[in-house]
Design brief:
Blueprint lengths: L2 E3 L12 E4 L3 E2 L2 H11 L4 H4 L1 H5 L10 H6 L1 H8 E3 L4 E11 L9 E14 L2 E12 L7 E10 L1
Parallel strand pairs: 1-4
Antiparallel strand pairs: 2-6, 3-6, 5-8, 6-7, 7-8
């Protein structure tokens, strides 16, 4: 369920709030190959199923940056801020990839509003997103995502 903030200013009083989770998605080979084509990263551990089957993960794995990019898919499922002229990605403070995502895995993100401060024209929010892999104890990605919600 999407958490809705009526205005950017409502974020200021919600620091520390658990924002919930996104839906699960399956990481299939087509998504990995499409990302490889978009970025030029065609390393065999991602795009060569036969060779990857003999490699350290036993199958192809998603690019770490693909997993990171999926947070832009997950975030609007988790949070919506109304009464804005726009929301923009401002950057990230920290990113880690504790565990590889093997092709066929299902992933989703959990989010916490870690910080919110007033900035010119709006509010800057730091949302810590943890991309979990179904059935695994370690997450695929943990990122402090920084967004600006402008009035």
């Amino acid at each position: 369920m999407t958490i809705v903030f009526s205005t950017p200013d409502d974020l200021l009083g919600a620091v520390g709030r658990d924002l919930g989770s996104s839906n699960w998605i399956t990481i299939d080979q087509d998504r990995i190959d499409t990302f490889a084509d978009a970025t030029g990263d065609h390393q065999w551990i991602h795009v060569d199923p036969a060779k990857a089957a003999e490699g350290p993960f036993g199958a192809p794995i998603a690019h770490g940056y693909l997993t990171l990019a999926l947070t832009n898919l997950f975030l609007p499922e988790i949070i919506r801020v109304d009464a804005t002229s726009m929301g923009v990605n401002y950057g990230v403070n920290k990113v880690r990839f504790p565990q590889a995502v093997v092709v066929g895995s299902r992933v989703r993100a959990n989010a916490v509003l870690s910080d919110a401060i007033e900035v010119a024209g709006g509010v800057q929010a730091v949302i810590t997103m943890t991309v979990e892999i179904e059935g695994q104890s370690k997450p695929a990605c943990v990122v402090e995502s920084v967004s600006r919600f402008l009035r």
